[in-house]
Structures are given as structure tokens and as C-alpha cells.
Amino acid sequence: MSSLNIAEEMGVALPERADATTHSTRPFLWSLRRELWDNPSIVVAPAVVGLLLVIATFVAAVRFTDPILLKLGEKNLDLTTVAFVPFTPVPIFLGITMVLVAAFYSLDALLGERQDRSILFWKSLPVSDSLTVLSKMAVPIVILPIITFVVAIATDILIFVIETIALLVHHAPVVSAWAGIPVLSLLAFMAYSAIVVTLWYAPIYAWFLLVSAWVRRIPLIAAVAPFILLPFFEKIAFQTNHVRDFIADRIGGVFTVAFLHKYTEHSHHHSLVAYNGLPLNDLLTPGHFLAAPGLWGGLLFAALALFLIIRLRRSSGPI
């Protein structure tokens, strides 16, 4: 209990300076720290994936740098293109990891505290249910994307160091290898990708949190079962596929509204796009993304789900 609460119970007035020490955002920040302490996978999972990518790059650099350089010399190919290849899996694998960690975290966030009865302790603290739910929702839509982006940058730096050392050992032209890579464009591309994927999947995370606040066990089945059974029922009863199309759009639709879908016509390999006349920034369609009804409909659903989650947590207790 804080000194302010003790003083209120004892009827003792504290100086005005004491009120200034308690900032309105402090309970929220402490709630976020609590989530990080209770769920180390939020940091560990992206870090492990990034480390595995670095190890894979190191092994490939040791085994294949010399044969690749020889083949490039024979065919007179661009060294920049080959040097860029190890960077391509970084946003892909870390993005998948971010989504999976966010999904499983959301499924367990409110169910876990009821199962281990820690909800009794957290409810005894001067922290509102609204603030607790918002801090839990902030993990998949704010904290995880930031952590993933930082890990992606660190992974790219280590890959750059490994490749540079490998090129120096084999007396390859290091400057020409890195000269054509648009670093700022790549950073903007990764940041944009993390933001649009997170906003598009926000209703999924909110649905998983709602299920976590409602069910007593097996949240994954409870969250996924309706979206498996409904398409079968619709197909049998009405011979239509609206539910199936809706689910497919919610899972993969972000890539058609947030990115240029015909970019493959400009290049045979997406890692070469920046070098074949189409800058990386031209692949991004933020205007199209912001105008997509699916984005705003999903965010509206997420807001309504948060309202229901707060109501459920107020009345929930240990299982």
C-alpha cells in the first residue's frame, strides 16, 4: 500500500509535493512490467529466433562463401544481390514469431491468473480492471511489435558483421557488396510491416483475450472451433463460402491491402525488387490500407471486445 493510501485511511494530509510523485501513467507502466515478468516468452521467443537466424547465417558463411564467390565470378553476377539474401528471412520468421507469441499470450493472459488464483492478489492492488485489461492488450499490439523490431535490427546487424567478415576473409569487394542496399528503406519496410500486421490482427488478439476471460479451460479450442465449424455449416446449409472467405481475408488480407500485390511482375525474386527499378517504398500502400473497411471494422470489434473483457474481469474470480 502506498503512503498516499495509508495517509488517506489515517486522515493525515500529505504535502502537495507527495502528490506529484505519483504519475497517472505509473500503474499502467507497472502493469506492463508485470506482464513481461510473468511472460518471458514475449522477449525470449523473438530473441531465440533471431539468434537461430544469426547461427544459420554464420554456418552458411563458413561453408558457402567461397563457392558462391567463385560462381559469381564465373557468371558475372551482382554481389549485392547475393549479400542481401540472408536478410530476407529475418522479417518473415520474426513476424511469424510475433503473431504466434501474441496469439498464445492473449489466450492465456486472463485465464492463467484465474487458474493460479493470482487474480485475488492483483485485484487487491489499487489497479482498475480497465487498466489491467488495457495493459494486457498493449502487449500484443504495442510491446511485442517494438521488441520484434528491435530484435530484427540487432539480427540484421549481426548478419551484416558476419557477412562482412566472410567477404574480407575471401578478399571480396566489401564496399560494392553493401553499396546498393537501401538501409533506411529496409528499416521503414520492417516497421511498416509490423504496424500493419499488428493493426490488422488486433481483433484476433482481442477475440483471444475475450475467450481467455470467459472460458475455464482449453481456450485454444474454444477460440478456434467456431471458425472451423461455421464454414462447414454454411457450406452444407446454404452452399456458400462467406464465412470461409471472411476468415481467409482476416488472416491474409493484410498483404493485399497494405502491399502492392503485383510486385512479383517486376522481379523474379522479391529481394531483388529494390534493384530492378522498383524501390522498396513503392511496395507499400498505406493509403489503400487505411481506406480498407476490414481494418476499421476489425478495430471496432476489438474496441467492443475490450469493453466486454473489462466487464468479465470485474465479475471473474479464481477457478
Features:
single chain, 319 residues, mainly alpha, globular
Summarize it.
This protein is an all-alpha fold and 319 residues long.
Describe this structure as you would to a colleague.
With 319 residues, the protein is mainly alpha-helical. The protein is built from 16 helices and no strands. Helix 11 crosses helix 12 (219-238) and helix 12 packs across helix 13 (242-252). The longest helix is centred in the middle third of the chain and has 41 residues, at 129-169. The model is unreliable at 6-21 and 263-278 (pLDDT under 50).
* Helical residue percent band: over 70%
Spans with pLDDT under 50 lasting ≥5 residues? 6-21, 263-278
Please state roughly what percent of the residues sit in beta strands, choosing from under 5%, 5-15%, 15-25%, 25-35%, 35-45% or over 45%: under 5%
**Terminal Cα span:** 26 Å
Order of helices and strands: HHHHHHHHHHHHHHHH
Tally of structural domains: 1
Please give the count of helices. Answer: 16
Mean pLDDT: 82
Write down how many β-strands occur, each being a DSSP E stretch of 2 or more residues: 0
Give the biggest sheet. none
Oligomerization state: single chain
Quickly give the structural class.
mainly alpha
| Shape category | globular
- What is the C-alpha radius of gyration, as a whole number of Å? 25 Å
